[in-house]
Write a structure and sequence with these properties.
The protein is an alpha/beta fold and about 240 residues long. It has helices at about 40-45, 70-75, 95-100, 105-120, 120-125, 135-150, 165-185, 195-200, 220-225, 225-235, and strands spanning about 1-10, 15-25, 30-35, 55-60, 65, 80, 155-160, 185-190, 205-210, 210-220. Magnesium ion binds near residues 40 and 41.
């Protein structure tokens, strides 16, 4: 479904990605692991069109998308839930969700998807008129994911959904990610520092180190990999 081929990217003089290649098959959950500054967010930004690669290509469903605008990429079926959530904190839960559908014109479909979002996230339904900024960290992450789903994506890019959340909340978020994948048939590229949670739901995983892919294998094989255990799982 998604094919990133030999992508390099930079911020001015700072090179963030070197020759990164990865693939995500339709229906899969694939995870991209790595320490702070490894280039995980930059990889997602290239895919969603926020930054342009200096070389290499990105193909989605057979189309080259790396010169498309972020809006066009959303309308092709890719939704990016950014690191730090980036909600409109002064707006309500309902308003944030509506903004997630900004590329769509099918009002009936949008209303149906809004109802479905509230079914998936009952906590958000109870708080629909509350300002997003007044939600707890976990609720804000749920809102960010729910907003990402409002464009009805086929591929969801999730950037560190567990960041700053308590272990029980992290567990709940991962359960929801798994459910969305299975029930809504949304393919997921999940960026995480929490390797053990990510590897527990991912079919395939890549490890980034200073902008380069250094390991790639099935989730279960990487869980048993000596280097991954020592560097990312901590045992
Ligand atoms: N907006 C930016 N401007 C300049 N450098 C950046 C910017 N964002 C990221 N970088 C740099 O690019 C590299 C990769 O960062 P990033 O993709 O955010 O890593 P990760 O998400 O894995 O923590 C780092 O060296 C980081 O300092
Ligand atoms: Mg990041």
């Amino acid at each position: 479904m998604l094919k990133v081929s030999s992508v390099s990217a930079a911020y001015g003089p700072i090179r963030a990605l070197h020759d990164v290649s990865l693939e995500v098959g339709e229906g899969q959950i694939v995870t991209l692991l790595g320490a702070n500054g490894a280039g995980k967010s930059s990889t997602l930004r290239v895919i969603s069109g926020v930054i342009r690669p200096t070389s290499g290509s990105v193909e989605f469903l057979g189309q080259r998308i790396h010169h498309r605008s972020p809006e066009k990429i959303v309308s092709l079926g890719i939704s990016h839930v950014p690191e730090g959530r980036e909600l409109f904190t002064e707006l309500t839960v309902a308003e944030n969700l509506s903004l997630g559908a900004y590329t769509r014109r099918d009002r009936d479909g949008i209303r149906q998807d809004l109802d479905r979002a509230y079914q998936y996230f009952p906590l958000l339904a109870q708080r629909r008129e509350q300002h997003a900024g007044s939600l707890s960290g976990g609720e804000q992450q749920m809102l960010a994911i729910a907003r990402g789903l409002m464009s009805r994506p086929r591929l969801l890019l999730l950037d560190e959904p567990s960041l700053g959340l308590a272990p029980l909340v992290v567990k709940e978020i991962f359960k929801i990610i798994d459910t969305i994948n299975r029930e809504e048939k949304v393919t997921i590229l999940l960026v995480e520092q929490n390797a053990s949670m990510a590897l527990s739901i991912a079919a395939y995983a890549y490890v980034l180190e200073t902008g380069r892919i250094v390991l790639a294998d099935t989730g279960s094989a990487l869980k048993d990999n000596e280097t991954v255990r020592r560097s990312y799982l901590g045992y």
